[in-house]
Amino acid sequence: MRSNVSEYEFIAPGSLDAVLALLSAEPGAWTPMAGGTELMVALGAGRLEQRKLVSLWGIGELRGITASADWLTIGAGATYTDIRENAAIAKEFPLLARSASWTGAIANQNRGTLGGNIVNASPAADSPPVLLVYEAEIELVSAQGARRMNYSEFHLGYKRTVLRPQELVMAVHLPRGHRLPVEYLRKVGTRNAMAISKVALAGVGAMQSGKVQTVRIAAASLRETPARLSMTEAVLVGHALTSDRIQAARKALLQEVKPIDDVRSTAKYRAHVAANLLEEFLNQMAASES
Amino acid sequence: MRDATPTRIVGTPALRKEGFGKVTGGARYIDDIVLLGMWHGATVRSSIARGAIKDIRFGAGINWDEFVIVTAKDIPGANCIPLIVDNDQPVLADARVNHPEEPVVLLAHPDKARLHEAVEAVEIDYDPLPAVFTIEESERQQTIVWGEDNVIKRFLVEKGDVDSAWQHAAHIVSGEYRTGAQEQLYIENNGVIAEWSDADGLIIRGSMQCPYYVHKALLRVFDLPAEKVRVIQAETGGAFGGKEDYPSLIAAHAGLLALKAGRPVKIIYDREEDLAATTKRHPSRTRYRTAVDKDGHLLAMDIQVDLDGGAYATVSPTVLSRATIHSAGPYLCENIRVRSHAWATNVPPHGAFRGFGSPQTIFGIERHMDQIAKAVGISPEEVRRRNFLAQGNATATGQLIRDPIDLRGMMDRALKVSDYHAKRARFARENATSSAIKHGMGIASFMHGAGFTGSGERYLNSLVGLEADASGHLTVLVSSTEFGQGTNTMLSQVVAEALGLSCEDVSIAQPDTNRVPNSGPTVASRTTMIVGRLVHDAALALAGILREKNLLSEEFSADEFRAACAAYTAQFGALRSEARYQPPKDIFWDDAKYQGDAYPAFAWAVYVAEVAVDTRTYAAEVVNFYTVQEVGRVMNPVLAAGQIEGGVAQGVGYALYEKVVWKDGRMSNNQMTNYIIPTAADVPNIEVYFEEMPCEHGPYGAKGLGELPHDGPAPAILNAIQDAAGISFTSIPLLPEDIFLRMAEAPEPECLEIVGSAKGPQ
Ligand SMILES: Cc1cc2nc3c(=O)[nH]c(=O)nc-3n(C[C@H](O)[C@H](O)[C@H](O)COP(=O)(O)OP(=O)(O)OC[C@H]3O[C@@H](n4cnc5c(N)ncnc54)[C@H](O)[C@@H]3O)c2cc1C
Predict the structure, then answer these.
(1) How far apart are alpha carbons B137 and B131 in whole angstroms?
(2) Which chain B positions have a beta carbon within 8 Å of A188's beta carbon?
(3) Nearest CA in chain A to B615
C-alpha cells in the first residue's frame, strides 16, 4: 500500500438521491466509487489523487437489469457477474456476456461494474466495443435531472468523457429486436485470462444477396478512446466481400486506427492484428449466407 | 544404496508436513508476525544507474524527528554482503551508486502509512557517470564499471583439440541464442523482522532460503561474534532462488534500523519494490560453432557463454559455472571448448533462479541441435540419438559417466507418450493446407547436475542433527528450508523409513541458527540427494547409539524403538545423533583446469512440446507438454510430479510470456499487470513420466529434481514453433510481437550457416 489511507475520506450515504445531492453541493469534490476495482488499484499504487470518495456500492437503483418492449436496461452498478448470469443478455446480447466473462477474474467480476468500466474510459476496456456495435444509449443523472444520448458520443478523448462532475452514469440501454445474424468478438490480450487487451474487435452484420447490408465494427486499444470504425464500415456496406473488398477494408481500418507503442504491445502489431481480426470477421460474414 | 530395496514410506505420496497450516491459514508468514513496540522500515533507493552521491537532503514537510534514519555511516562493521567475492555488494551505497534501485538510506517509523511519503521526500543529488546496460556494452569495455575489464568471472573448459576438428567437418553450423531476465515471482514478497538487544545481539526472522548465508553476512556487517547473531526462517511463501542471497541484504537493513531505533523493525517489500529491486535470472547470449560429420555426429563444439551479471558479483560466478558445465548438453563430443564470461552491467545484480545458469545454455544447445539436424538433413530426434552420452563416456569436463543412463530409451518413451511421429506427420499435412493455426512438435533432451558444482560440497561440509525425545518422537535439525517444494515432507519420509516409524513420528525443527547445524543452503537441487542422505545417516547413527547401550536389537519395531528412547533418555539424558558430509572417494574436481567430476550425479530428461501458432494473432500456445525424466528414486510421487509441473509452467513463462522491460537499467514493468506470467488458462496439459534408476549418492537412490524441469521447456517450445511455422527463433522471451515481425513480413532465411561460415566464436 503506497498510500496513507488516513489521508482519504470515504463515505457511503446509501441512496442515489443522497449521492447526487452531495455531488451537486460540491461539484468535483467527490469521486464516486462503485466496485473499486480501478480506484483501489490506484490507491494501492499511491497514485489516487482524489481524496474524497463516495460509495455507490449497494445502491439498488443503480444495479438492476430490466427489459421493456424496446430496451434492455442495465444499471451502471451491475457487475460482470450480474451480466454473465442474466438470461436476456445471454440470449439477445451474447457478445456482452462474453466480454464480461473474460474481464479480469471471478473476484473482479463480482465487484467490477459496467459503469466503472465506461467511466474509467480506458481505450483498452472490454465492454465499450460491444456497447458500440449494439448501438447502446447511455443515461446520465444528476440532482438537476437526467439526460440520455448515444453511447458513441460519450467518449471525447483519452480518458475524457461528457460526464459532468455532478453526474453519475445511471444506466446503459440496449435496443432490443435488432439482432443481426453475424456477431463477432475477439480479445487479444497478453495471455488467456487476467489480461488487458492489446487489441480487441467487435463486429455485427448482415448480408443480403451476397452484399453487406449492415455492418458495425468497434475496437479497443486502437485509438485514444473505444471507437467505432466507421470508415471501414463505409468501405463495406453495399459490397460483395471479394478478396479485393476485404483488402480495401483492411486498408481503411489501418487508416483510421491510431494505435500506440506501450508496455503491452507495439502499434504495428496492434494495427496488423486488428486487420487480421477484421478479415476473420468478414470471412464469417461472407460464409453466413451460404 | 543402489539396490531398490522395497520401502514402506519412501516412494509413497506422504502428505505435506506444512500443508494443513497453509491451507487453513494457520501458517504464519513474516508479515503475520508482530512484535511488541515494533516499527516499520523502508528503503530509499537510487534513481540513476551509476554516479557519485553528492548530497542527501531530507525534504520539507516531514517531521524527520519522528523517524530513525540510517545511512552507510551507521554500519558498525563492513559495508558489504560477502558471498563469493569479497568487498562486493554494499549494504548501503556510500560514495556512489552502481545500479538503479540501489539502497542508499533507510527509514523507520512506528506508522507504516507514513513511510511512503517520507521515502519520496528524501532527495539524493548525483554526479552521473556513464553506465552500461547490456552484455554488448559491457564487453566493449569502453566504459569500465567493474574491476579492470568488466569481467566478474570467466571460465575456460577444454576437452580434446577443437581447432583441428574443423577441417574434417562435413558441416559447420553456427548459431547465436539469447535469453532474457526472468523474475522468480514467489507469491510472498521479501520481508524480514530484526530485533536487537545488547544481551542477545541481533535476532532476524524472515522469508528466506539460506539462514546461514544471512548469518554469515550479518557477522561482517555488524562485526559480531557468531553467537550474537541468530537467524530464524519464518514460513516462506515461495523462493525459486530469489531468496537465496537477497534476504541477507534486507536482514542487514532491518538490523541496522533495529540497532539504531532500539526496537524491533519490520521491512516488507511490496510487489513493485520487490520486482524492481531484487534479483532476476541472468540474461544470456550463447554462441555455438559446431563441426559435424555427414551423419550428424558432433566432431567439435566451440561454445561461448556470456551472462549479464548486473552491478555486483553476488552469485554470478557460480551461476556462470553451472551455465558453462551444462552448455554442451547431454552429448558426447571429443573436442569441446567453452569460454564463458559474466559481465558487469549497471542493472540490479542478477541472482539465483531455478536452474541457475543451465536453462540459459540448455536453451542454446537444444535450439542449436535442431539447426544441426536441418543442416545434416536428419530429424531432430535422430541428431540427438546419434550423439547421446552413454555410460562410460566423458562429459565436457571429462567426467566419466559411471552410473547407467538410458537417454535413447527415454527418447523412445517421450516420442511414444507424445505420439510424436503420428502428430508430426498429421501437422505437416494440415499446416500445408489450413491457414489459420499451425501446429508443431519440438524436443529438448538435457541433464541437470545435482548438488553444488565441483568442490562446492566439500567446502560446505554440511552437518545435520537428529534428536529423539523420551516418547521416541524425532526432530530433524537442518538449516535446509521449506519454501513450498516439500523438503520437510521428504526428510520426514527418510527418517521414518530408516527407523521403521511413520511420518507423524518425525518433526522438522524450525530453521534457527541457534538450534540447527549448518546443513548448507537450500539450493542446487541438493537437499534431497545430499541433505536427505545425511539425515538418513543420522537416523542410522541414532539407532546405533541405542544399540551401543544394548537398548535396541538389529531388527526392531516402532514400539521397541520408543521404549529404547525412553530408557536412553532416562539413563543418559538427551538423545542426539549427527552426520557430516563425507566426500565420495571416487569424485575429483580440478578448480584450476575446470576438469573432473562436476556433480556427484545428473538427472536426465527428454521433453516434447506440442504448440499451436495462430497466424492471425501471432501467438504461440503450448497445447500439450510431455516430460520423461530420470531422477533416481522418486521419494514422493505427488511432490515430484508437482515439481515437474511447476517447473514446466515457469519454463512456459520463460519461453513465451515473461519479459522484463528495461529502461536505463531499471525494470519498468514492475507490476503483475504488466509482467506477464502464464495463468492456469495458459499452462498446457502436462504429462509427467519418471524413469527410476537408483543412484548411490542419495537416500534410497534419489537424485535432485527441483531445477531440472525449468531447463527443457523453452528450447522444446521454440523447436516446436520452428516445426509449426518454419521459422527459427533464437531468442526468448518470444512474444507474439516478435513472431509477428518475422511472420507477417517476408520470410527470412534460417539462422544457420553451412560449411565455410566464419561467423560464430573465433
Ligand atoms: C485484476 C484486475 C483485472 C482487470 N481486468 C480487466 C479486464 O480484463 N478488462 C477490463 O475492461 N477491465 C479490467 N479491469 C478493470 C476494472 O475491473 C473494470 O474497469 C471495472 O469495470 C471497473 O468497475 P468498478 O465498479 O470497479 O470501478 P471503480 O473503481 O469503482 O470506478 C472506476 C471509475 O468509474 C467511476 N464510476 C464508477 N461508477 C460510476 C457511475 N455509476 N457514475 C459515474 N462514475 C462512476 C469512478 O469514479 C472511477 O473514476 C481489471 C481490474 C483489475 C483490478
Answers:
(1) 9
(2) 617, 619, 736
(3) A276
Atom from ligand 1 closest to the CA of residue A38 = 29
- The helix (H) or strand (E) run that includes residue B706 is none
Query: Across the interface, do A191 and B657 touch by the CB < 8 Å criterion?
Result: yes
Nine cell digits for residue B612 = 499451436
Q: Torsion over CA of A163, A165, A171 and A172, rounded to 10 degrees? A: 10
Domain CATH code at residue A241: 3.30.390.50
User: Residue A48's domain is classified under what CATH number?
Assistant: 3.30.43
- DSSP label of A273: H
Rg (CA), chain A: 20
Do residues A196 and A248 both lie within one domain? yes
Instruction: Check whether residue A186 and residue A252 sit in a common domain.
Output: yes
Q: In a 3-state reduction of DSSP, which class is residue B727?
A: coil
Closest CA to B690 of B639, B642, B632: B632
Point out the domain boundary residue: A128, A150, A175.
A175
The 10s digit of each residue's pLDDT in B187-224 is 999 999 999 999 999 999 999 999 999 999 999 999 99
Specify whether A144 is located in the same domain as A197. Answer: no
Give the residue whose CA is nearest to atom 23 of ligand 1: A116
CA distance readout (Å), B302 to A208, B156, B168, B324, B365? 66, 11, 15, 12, 11
Domain shared by A50 and A71, yes or no: no
| Domain range enclosing A114 | 60-175
- Cβ contact B661–A263 (<8 Å): yes
Residue A41 Cα to ligand 1 middle (Å): 10
C-alpha cell at B283: 540474461
Is this complex scored with an ipTM above 0.85? yes
User: Is the CB of residue B617 less than 8 Å away from at least one CB of chain A?
Assistant: yes
| Residues A71 and A50 reside in one and the same domain | no
From chain A, pick out residues whose CB is under 8 angstroms from the CB of B114: 4
From CA B702, how far away is CA B528, in angstroms rounded? Answer: 7
Ligand 1 pocket check: which of A74, A108, A114 to mutate, most ligand atoms within 8 Å of Cβ?
A: A108
Residue A259 CB less than 6 A away from ligand 1: no
Residue A158 is part of a domain; what is its CATH number?
Answer: 3.30.465.10
Pairing between β-strand B51-58 and β-strand B68-70 as defined by DSSP bridges: unpaired
Q: Helices A267-288 & B736-743, crossing angle to 10 degrees?
A: 70
pTM given for the model: 0.96
Both A65 and A145 in one domain: the answer is yes
Q: Is the CB of A56 under 6 A from ligand 1?
A: yes
Tens of pLDDT, residue by residue over B125-184, are 999 999 999 999 999 999 999 999 999 999 999 999 999 999 999 999 999 999 999 999
Among A120, A140, A175, which residue terminates a domain?
Answer: A175
Q: Is residue A111 in contact with ligand 1, taking CB distance under 6 Å? A: yes
Does residue A120's CB lie within 6 angstroms of at least one atom of ligand 1? yes
DSSP for B549-564, written as a single string: TT-S-SS--HHHHHHH
Contacts of B673 in chain A (CB under 8 A): 196
Whole-angstrom distance, CA of residue B519 vs CA of residue B617: 50
Report DSSP state, residue B281: P
What is the set of domains in chain B, with CATH numbers? 33-129+189-277 (3.90.1170.50), 284-453+592-755 (3.30.365.10), 462-580 (3.30.365.10)
Nearest-10 crossing angle of helices B407-417, B380-387: 160
List the single residue in A4, A277, A279 with the smallest CB-CB distance to B116: A4
In this structure, are A70 and A45 located in the same domain?
Answer: no
Buried b (16+ CB within 10 A) or exposed e, B56-82: eeeeeebeeeebbbbbbebbeebbbbb
Do A124 and A161 have their domain in common?
A: yes
Q: What is the pLDDT of residue B4?
A: 55
Question: Count of domains in chain A?
Answer: 3
What are the tens digits of pLDDT across the range B268-280?
999 999 999 999 9
